[in-house]
Amino acid sequence: MAEMENVSYVPLKQPIVFNLEGFVINRQQGYPLFVVSLIVYAVMLLGNITVVTVIAVDAKLHKPMYVMMCNLAVCDLLGGTTVMAQMMPQFLTGDKTIGYVAAIVQAFCVHTYGSAVATILSAMAYDRYIAICQPLHYHAIMTTRRLVSLCFLAWFIAVCLVAILFILNVGTPLCGTLIMHVYCSNRAILSLACIPTPINNIYGLCMTWFLSTGSFLVMAFSYVQILKACIIKQEKNSRSKAIQTCASHLTIYILFEIASVIIIVAYRFEEVSPNAKKFCAILFIIVPPTVNPIIYGVAMKDIRSNIAKLFKFTALPK
User: Fold this and answer.
1) Beta strands at 17-20 and 97-99: parallel, antiparallel or unpaired
2) d(CA 21, CA 305)
3) Contact between residue 48 and residue 292 where contact means Cβ atoms under 8 Å apart
4) Which of 36, 102, 173, 306 has its CA 20 to 30 A from that of 135?
């Protein structure tokens, strides 16, 4: 009986090269998709780099809200670049192979992006709560030291949680090389394991629950208190002020959550085509990084005016 329970397997040995299933398309379809992906990536780069540059150059924008905005832009660049830079050559060349180390790095960056978005948006919500609900004490509370601590904590929590996730995978034998996805993730790699990985699965679910629930509670508490404060004060245009101040943050959070939910919903319907499911699976890492800078540019006057000045200056003849 013991011999029957011990299932034999032959684990792969390094160097391991994975094959990504990717989108099921032919070479002729790959060329226009490459062009579209390149345009989207260019918009993503231009938007986020512009936001970071504008905030870094203008000393008036060296405030907690804008510093956190820079952190979010860097996070968006990390996630978007990790996927787009690997996906675009697939469309152009048809080569869908990826080495073991590159796969682990990509998966680590993707999970760090998803985790850091939640923690950074939570820190931004806390900053808005202090600014509107305790305006007289804002500068005393949100000191440079507190700001640095918040930004560091946001990244530290995300990186540590993801690092533990991948440390648990060390030594796990793999018996397959085909990753049924567009990019590499922890779950996709573990699905190739020769043995069950219950601890990894439980930890992954707990980490996801902790981040999603924690960020939701922080956001909900902060913005409920903001709305209550604006209504109780009964200041003129208090509601519109709250909406203008917090609209961009809420929009970005809701957009990220919707893109994440679409992944779950798409994979619940068997009639949805495999390509459509894969497209839905990359929305959360493509759409927010591309749209976030546009939201900032439209919703926030300081960012919008400085972007206009930047492009006006660069357009002047030398």
Assistant:
1) antiparallel
2) 45
3) yes
4) 306
- Asked if 103 contacts 42 with a C-beta cutoff of 8 angstroms, the reply is no
Give the largest Cα separation in the chain, rounded: 84
Q: Pick the residue with more confidence: 48 or 252? A: 48
What pLDDT is stored for residue 113 in this prediction?
94
Per-residue DSSP letter, 137: G
**Number of helices and strands (H, E) in the chain?**
11, 3
Residue 130 CB partners (closer than 8 Å, separation 6+):
137, 138, 141, 142
d(CA 177, CA 174): 8
- What digits encode the pLDDT tens for the residues 28-70? 888 899 999 999 999 999 989 988 888 888 888 888 888 999 9
Q: Which of 264, 272, 279 is nearest to 208 (CA)?
A: 264
At 152-193, the pLDDT tens digits run: 999 999 999 999 999 998 888 888 888 888 889 888 888 888
- Cα separation, 134 vs 141, in Å, equals 9
Cβ-based neighbours of 194, under 8 Å, separated by 6 or more: 9, 11, 173, 174, 175
SS3 18: strand
Tokens standing for residue 112: 């760090």
Rounded Cα gap, residues 49 and 43, in angstroms: 10
| Whether pTM exceeds 0.85 | yes
SS (H, E, C) 138-188: HHHHCCHHHHHHHHHHHHHHHHHHHHHHHHCCCCCCECCCEECCCCCCHHH
